[in-house]
Amino acid sequence: MVSFALLWRPMCLFLSCSQTTSPEESSYQIVEQLYGVPDGWTEDGVPSPATPMKFHMAVSNDRMAEFEQRVIEIATPGHQLYGQFMTRDEVGDFLRPSNDTVDRIVAWMKSERVPSESIERHANWITFTVPVSQAEDMLKTRFHSFRNDVSQETAIRTLQYSVPQDIRDFIQMIQPTIKFGQFSAQENQPDLEPVATRFDDLNVNCSTTVTTKCLRRLYGIYDTEAKPDPRNKLGVSGFLDQYARYDDFRAFMRTYEPDHTDANFNVVSINGGRNDQDSSFASTEASMDIQYAVALAYNTDTTYYTTGGRGPFVPEVDQPNVGSSSNEPYLEQLHYLLNLPDQDLPAVLSTSYGEYEQIIPESYANVTCNMYAQLGARGVSVIFASGDSGVGGSCVSNDGTGRTRFMPTFPATCPFVTSVGGTYGVDPEKAVGFSGGGFSEYFQRPAYQDESVHGYLDQLGDKWEGLYNPEGRGVPDVAAQARGFVFVDHGYFMKLGGTSAAAPVFAAIVSRLNAARLERGQGRMGFLNPWLYSLNNTGLTDIVDGGSVGCTGYSDVGGRASIVPHASWNATQGWDPVTGLGTPDLNTLIKVACSTEGT
Prior knowledge:
Its main location: secreted. By secondary structure, the chain is an alpha+beta fold. It folds into 2 domains: about 5-60 and about 95-175, no CATH class; about 185-595, Rossmann fold (3-Layer(aba) Sandwich), CATH 3.40.50. Strands 12, 13, 14, 15, 17, 19, 20 and 23 form an 8-stranded mixed beta sheet that branches. Strands 4-5-3-9 form a 4-stranded antiparallel beta sheet. A 3-stranded antiparallel beta sheet has the order 2-6-7, with no helix packed on it. Strand 13 (about 265-270), helix 8 and strand 14 (about 300-305) form a beta-alpha-beta unit. The longest helix is centred in the last third of the chain and has 21 residues, at about 500-520. It is globular.
């Protein structure tokens, strides 16, 4: 097995190993660093010194744990704060760093001649735009252009950066700096195939083919029209140049929802995200997500958020370079959403993208997860696909040891999102093999799921000991159908699977719960997990058949891979790390949701 260290070229390629440190630089402290150029990237010269770069600085806050506890309390039935969502200003005030902290950081920025008009402050974030040459002086580093060996895309990055010692403790991270890469949709591509277009030709019992009619029957979505309410918006995330096409949407609705052909959706661009209705590139993820979300949440104001840009990445075996990976730009979307006025926020946000947790630096994962907590504090139910690699793909850690390890998916592992695993078939529904799940290496198990997860671990015993973190946050939380979904892309009727299909289905059901509560004069559901784990399976069908697979010695890009014979998380009675608490029964969930209040 090749050592992880061999995946790095020496840093001395850019910084002389015998280079001495100036007195000024000795007063600086490294914030983050890589010890070489990530595998799959090649230095390709230097950018123009005048090239502008926009940086996002996460500022430390000693009230972060207190804030996250408040979010849990707001979401816990029976608590006196249940349902009392915070406003944008209240969240900002809670997380805003002390004046002394901000003053010292801004004083440093001014001493580095950062124009005041380029500095923006939002809660615990500071953004600023400066040319490359100025950024190099500020961060005591050198930026280079790097070209991806496969995609030939270029990125301006460095291998390390520093800030003055007296403000180091105030800064969690600054992006973009050392992080390379992108990420992928959670769709099971081998399932992609053309299908018949006539509804009568399709088996609607969910055993082989899934349509909206099938899902309505299976999950009790019999009331096909929710009462419109401006407080109940549904958001669907779009990344990686995936466009939701109106022509395909209308064709889908005419065929499978003929009574709801008046349905529609909005498109909002974030960070230069495009809305190319004439693109010749496949948009399977966007098509499937928007078609099922709008159809099942009919009469709900639905928006497709198309986000441009690329997110951070740390190399690992299954995704060593930008050509074989694709990290969606979480920060760009999150900053946009968190800056929205309260009345413009979606009540539910469905995202069908993710990547192995170990790819994301822990500091970045923590910062991002807290931003999802901020959405939850403001009454947004954040839904994520749990992943499509079962227990893991290559199952090789990237911590320098190259040890065998199961690999959960982020952001599904964030304790402030609701992660959705996958099932297939009917009577009974079974866990689908690719359904992602497991236990986070970064996030400790939250109290709201401790009892449920302990029940599974007690049954598991010492099986898979050493391959996962038994103290970690358990994934997924719930599940839904994830195989054989019929949708339309570029005029063709196709069939596709993945937990990316399950996420918008569950999101649409949550939107229905919101509609029912709002119609009765109650508030939205908001962050769901404490409520879900308090149900004792009421309104959820426990999945006890099937299990996940993984660690088969195959790497997505032909890199190193470990074999763990019969590796699997089995579906069992109660919570399990392949289907969570189970699949939804909407009618029962509505009854429970409408009877849930605080003290």
